[in-house]
Amino acid sequence: MKLGAFSVSLSVQDLEASRRFYEKLGFVEFGGDATQNWLILKNGDHVIGLFQGMFEKNMLTFNPGWDNNADALESFTDIRELQRELKAQGMEFVSEVDESGSGPGSFLVVDPDGNPILVDQHR
Fold first, then answer.
1. Bridge partner residues of 106 (DSSP)
2. Residue 49's domain spans which residues?
3. From the centroid of its chain, how far is CA 109?
4. Per-residue pLDDT of the chain (123 residues; tens, 9 = 90+)
5. Of 57, 60, 94, 119, which one has the greatest count of Cβ atoms within 10 A?
6. DSSP state of 72
7. Cα 78 to Cα 31: distance, rounded to the nearest angstrom
8. Rounded Cα–Cα distance for residues 116 and 55 (Å)
9. Please, are residues 116 and 105 in contact by the beta-carbon 8 Å criterion?
10. How does DSSP assign 87-119, residue by residue?
11. What is the CATH number of the domain that holds 78?
12. CA-based nearest residue to 11, from 62, 48, 63
């Protein structure tokens, strides 16, 4: 199963303080919009998202259709197919993508330890 680009999405209290902290670790701003309380930072192949006031817990994020530079992949497994495969394995979902649609969509699952995992397709 190919889930796409991977990043860690961090729920932060102070976006600017967190940005400065991760910049000291060598991360540079890669995307996002600070006026909307979110930034994407990158250090080599490592990507983290900083999100202030958007969700309660840190989560793992996968983006079908993107590589680690947020460039579109020529070929990828659509999020609806990923969801169908996981359902067939008995996976429980917190939220689901509409399987009758196409294009962007997301679903959310939670691992046995309560860690949220977001699969978020942008194209």
1. 120
2. 5-121
3. 12
4. 899 999 999 999 999 999 999 999 999 999 999 999 999 999 999 999 999 999 999 999 999 999 988 899 999 999 999 999 999 999 999 999 999 989 999 999 999 989 999 999 998
5. 119
6. B
7. 23
8. 10
9. no
10. HHTT---SB---TT--SSEEEEEE-TTS-EEEE
11. 3.10.180.10
12. 48
Strands 46-52, 38-43: pairing is antiparallel
Tell me if 101 sits within 8 A of 92, measured CB to CB: no
| Alpha carbons 106 and 96: distance in angstroms, whole number | 7
Total number of domains in the chain: 1
State how far the Cα of 44 lies from the Cα of 91, in Å rounded to an integer: 33
pTM greater than 0.85 (yes/no)? yes
